[in-house]
Amino acid sequence: MLAMRPGCPSSTLVCAAGSRGRVRDALWRWTGPVLLMVGIQYLAPSLKAASAGSDVDRGIAQRLITAATNGTTAMARLAELCDTFGPRLSGSTNLEAAIDWILATLVSDGFDRVRGEPVKVPHWVRGPASLEGRDPAIGEIPLLALGGTVGTPPAGIEAPVLVVTNYAELNARPERAVGRIVVFNPPFISYGDIVRYRSGGANAAAKAGAVASLVRSATPFSLRTPHTGAMNYEEGVRKIPHAAIATEDADRLARLQARGITPVLRLVLSATVLPDADSRNIVAEIRGWERPGEIVVVGGHVDSWDVGQGTLDDAGGCLAAWEALRLIKTVGRQPRRTLRLVLWTNEENGLRGAKAYAETHRDELDRHVIAIESDSGIGPVKGFAFTGSQEADRRLRAVMPLLATIGADGLKAGAGGADLGPLLQRGVPTMDLWTERTDYFWFHHSAADTVDKMNPAELNRCVAALAVMLDALGNLPEPLPR
Ligand SMILES: [Zn+2]
Could you report the average pLDDT of every consecutive run of 10 residues in the chain (482 residues)? Predict the structure, then answer.
């Protein structure tokens, strides 16, 4: 049943019918309720179907797009956040100070129920590290320890190198790796393909008898900048130090080996795992006027790696979601259902924030209409990627034309945001902001992920796309079917 708000298009059915003369008034008094009920029965489905693309919503969508594309707040706040509190690794004072600043700013924006929900997060601390090419005398080689690695003994490890392209090459003759530093040098075909060596390389190398492992940074382009990221140890496998080197150095070591030379490296790594630290998921809302218990989640992750400023990954995603909701407030829209900003903590090295959110809110997950994340780099926006039922997909397609003016009307299958995983597992439909930033992995997890890499106009178009989508999802007459 449609609930009517004063001034909503449906209520004009009643207003117009009762105002023309006594006879008509009397007729209406007796027949009106019946006609109205019959009318609603026939009209309601078509009103519902049409509402996502109605003229009223088109007007709101255009106002949101104009406000977003002319805006300066998203970029100004992004720069302030990253310049003041970047980088923001879990367990760091920077991350918690950033969370305090965001919470205070959300309160001053006038959001409802602004809070930090407690999460225990891993606390890994990178220490001083060095890598030196001894023979031949390459000298100092830039490196970044991978998140979670153990350190070397204080004096370091000096050992000859074995360069391999992939696991198959290592495992074909594993005896060659005994006592060596294994260097994984796979080509960048896709991030998903190369990242297997970053996450699991130490295990494969240790099983073959290596004393340490290095991995080519997960990027298709480099200015001799190493890229960090998460790695893990398999239960029962000897833990060896694991670090990333720049593509240039991985290639150099491979060329030396191809000429019959076995380079010798000296690796010193210090890294510490401290007890779990206190952090928070940031949660803020625009409460729904009609169905406050139904929730549309949107967000990104507030933590970052401990290098650079964590701008593209993922302050940009956080700001795009935050600003989209702020603009919905600014244009005076109050949605039917609750729009909830969630800025997850600890995406990078634990996903504890996403797991804690799903656990804390387990009793209301059946009323989560959808969860949207932006965590693949703010760039030219194409639309959205969606995971959910066919019927939900069909309803979303009615919304997409609202985004045609900014070229963000694409809808493709498959939302893969890491923080969405625990919600997806519990049946919540999920969506990613779909951007096509071709240079994202040039900067990702490196010292070069800094504010200057953000294009303010592209950020604003991402804000616009999210604002229009959130307004539509917040006002659909019925939740998306699962
Ligand atoms: Zn990220």
Answer: 33 33 44 44 39 63 98 98 97 98 98 98 96 96 97 97 98 98 97 96 98 98 98 98 98 98 98 96 98 98 98 98 98 96 97 98 98 96 98 96 97 94 97 95 98 98 98 95 94
Domain end (from 230, 262, 294): 262
CA atoms within 13 A on the CB side of 343: 31
pTM for this model (two decimals): 0.88
CATH of the domain at 183: 3.50.30.30
In terms of residue numbers, what domain contains 237?
Answer: 139-262
Tell me the CA distances in angstroms from 121 to 51, 242, 274, 387, one per residue in order: 43, 22, 10, 28
- Domain count for the chain, please give it: 2
Q: Are 311 and 268 in contact (CB under 8 A)?
A: no
Parallel, antiparallel, or unpaired: how do β-strands 112-135 and 264-286 relate? antiparallel
Can 290 be counted among the known catalytic residues?
Answer: no
- Ligand 1: distance of its center to the CA of 375 in Å? 5
Quick check: 162 and 210 in contact, CB under 8 A?
A: yes
| Catalytic member of 347, 348, 373, 458 | 347
